[in-house]
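Q: what sequence does this backbone want?
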């Protein structure tokens, strides 16, 4: 029991007995309120007419199936989208790093700017930021021309410089791929890494997930329409069935009262008709 556990822990931690008793009463009231609410819902459902019960059951079933199917479909789509984004992001940042290495060594900034600018013509979904910075932290090439010659923050510089290989940094709003650009120089029999700069590519989750959200909304709208149609059909078809059940129930009561000459006519060929 939760209250027993609380009493034991309370005594162990020196909690006053009055606080323990108050918590015990609060837990008991919460459990009683939940039980009463559930009984009220069950009682309300039992008082509904039969065709309303059938309609409610059908609607709940359709919504439950739709929720399960849409959840599975959305999760699969998100997983596939993530895999495709990872493949594309790694390819972009690795190719940008390979091109930037020689051009940073030769200080060929215009070549880098043209290379980065070409990505804006490819209409890559979700690609928001793509840039190369030099060893000083100055952006030398960027998708947005206004960002060129700006300096990255100290934290961003440390993050970019520490990525020895292509790395994915995921945030709440973006997929970011980063990789540092460096050359290795051997001196006195030892290798020394010289930082040339870093490359970075960011994808917006909002843009990437927009088609999935649109698909989910369409599924919800379709399920709502199916539920409305199903409820209408159940209400229409169940009226005759419910009417026959009521007639049979009334006839059974008359037989119980001693009237053995009761007859019920129906065109049903199922259990009710036979």
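A:
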């Amino acid at each position: 029991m939760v209250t027993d556990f609380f009493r034991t822990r309370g005594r162990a931690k020196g909690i006053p007995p009055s606080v323990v008793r108050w918590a015990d009463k609060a837990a008991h009231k919460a459990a009683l309120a939940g039980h009463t609410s559930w009984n009220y819902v069950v009682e309300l459902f039992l008082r509904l007419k039969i065709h309303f019960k059938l309609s409610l059951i059908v609607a709940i079933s359709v919504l439950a199936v739709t929720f399960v199917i849409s959840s599975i479909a959305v999760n699969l789509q998100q997983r596939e989208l993530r895999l495709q984004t990872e493949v594309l992001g790694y390819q972009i940042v690795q190719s940008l790093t390979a091109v930037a290495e020689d051009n940073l060594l030769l200080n060929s900034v215009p070549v880098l700017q043209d290379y980065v600018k070409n990505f804006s013509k490819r209409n890559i979904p979700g690609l928001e930021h793509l840039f190369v910075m030099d060893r000083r932290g100055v952006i030398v090439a960027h998708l947005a021309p206004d960002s060129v010659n700006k300096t990255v923050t100290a934290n961003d510089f440390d993050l970019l410089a520490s990525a020895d290989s292509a790395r994915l940094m995921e945030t709440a709003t973006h997929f970011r791929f980063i990789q540092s650009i460096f050359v290795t120089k051997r001196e006195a029999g030892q290798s020394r890494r010289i930082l040339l700069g870093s490359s970075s590519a960011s994808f917006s989750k909002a843009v990437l997930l927009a088609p999935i959200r649109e698909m989910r909304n369409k599924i919800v709208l379709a399920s709502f329409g199916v539920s409305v149609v199903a409820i209408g059909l159940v209400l229409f078809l169940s009226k005759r069935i419910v009417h026959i059940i009521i007639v049979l129930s009334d006839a059974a009561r008359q037989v119980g009262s001693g009237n053995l000459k009761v007859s019920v006519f129906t065109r049903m060929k199922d259990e009710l008709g036979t």
